[in-house]
Amino acid sequence: MGDKPVVKSRIVRRGLAGITLLTVLLAITVLVSVGIGAEHTPFAVVAKIIGSHIFGNHLSSNGAGGSDLAVQDTIIWQMRLPRVLLAAIVGILLAVAGAALQGLLLNPLADPYTVGVSSGAAFGAAIAFLLGLSGWLAGFGVPIVAFIFALAAMLVVYSLSRFGGRVSIHSFLLAGVVVGSFLWAALTFVLTLAGQDLSVIIHWLLGSFADKPWSYIVMILPFAVIGLAVLVAIARDLNVYTLGEETARHLGVDIEKLKLIIILTTSLITAAAVSVSGIIGFAGLIVPHIARRMFGSDHRVLLPTSALSGAILMVIADTAARALGEVPVGVITAMLGAPFFLYLLRRR
């Protein structure tokens, strides 16, 4: 029993060290990424422009370089920074959802799209494009419709897996696969009707953060804050759950309540991420494994470190996508994730 405080202290130290390190790396990655583009902006100038907006300092526009600084300010603050921050938030959402679902399903190959959310969002977005709803609700027609369809898919999967007041994890996985397959088939039918909208729909499906203003961040940020807070709050119960349902039940964990909270929360944050970025695969699969190898499997540490690692990975992937001429981000993450997926299969 005397070893428990020592182990707990070690976990806390590891968690704090990991979170601090990853936070610093994320800040550096964001600043470097914001400076990369068709016109490279030095690191110091990027920091000066962002600092002027955060702390309310006015940039000096006197002198010959004043107009150039004003142009750089517009590019950095209005175009690049919102895109990079949105990529970071989406990376947080997908990674933390993947970590939580892998713990709940006791399956190292689970990811946020297991519950059928991605197929629902894709089908909803295709319907929105087909009906010409892109300009609906101040330009948020597509993400809102995608979000609604994603939640509807999740509710169907949850209903199909619930028997006698209990959720069967095996039924949940099977229902997710079946509903997802049906919705992808429905999406294929919609694509045959798309006509001139086909390229737009396919581009959305492959994932992108291009041309996303600050309003997208305002829309998705509450889901990130609330979702991460909820999952971290139940991290201890999730640790106990990984020992087995019966063991967790005997230790006082409300198993069905825990399942419901994780399923609803991960579905909500995944739906929010997919609705603004499209479908970006593998991020929610590979990031939790990387964080687990580096910082351990305690979910009190794994969830926040996965979130920060996901943000870093997504910012790097989006930067690479921009540097390669606006390649869809989903292509970059797939190129990184597919070899890692094969590595997991070989190891396990």
Can you walk through the features of this model?
The chain is built from 15 helices and two strands. The longest helix is centred in the N-terminal third of the chain and has 40 residues, at 66-105. The mean pLDDT is 86. α1 (3-35) packs antiparallel against α3 (66-105), α4 packs antiparallel against α6 and α4 (117-130) runs antiparallel to α8. It is an all-alpha fold.
Short description:
The chain has 15 helices and two strands.
Features:
single chain, 348 residues, mainly alpha, 15 helices, 2 strands, 78% helix, 1% strand, globular
**Cα Rg:** 21 Å
| Unreliable stretches | none
Q: Name the helix and strand elements from N-terminus to C-terminus, one letter apiece.
A: HHHHHHEEHHHHHHHHH
The strand count comes to 2
Helix content: over 70%
Q: In terms of structural class, how would the helical and strand content be classed?
A: mainly alpha
On the 0 to 100 scale, the average pLDDT is 86
How would you summarize the topology of this molecule?
Blueprint: H1 3-35, H2 43-55, H3 66-105, H4 117-130, H5 136-139, H6 141-160, E1 162-163, E2 166-167, H7 169-193, H8 198-205, H9 214-233, H10 235-241, H11 245-250, H12 255-277, H13 283-295, H14 299-323, H15 329-347
Antiparallel strand pairs: 1-2
Helix pairs in contact: 1-2, 1-3, 1-14, 2-3, 3-9, 3-12, 3-13, 3-14, 4-6, 4-7, 4-8, 4-12, 6-7, 6-12, 9-12, 9-14, 13-14, 14-15
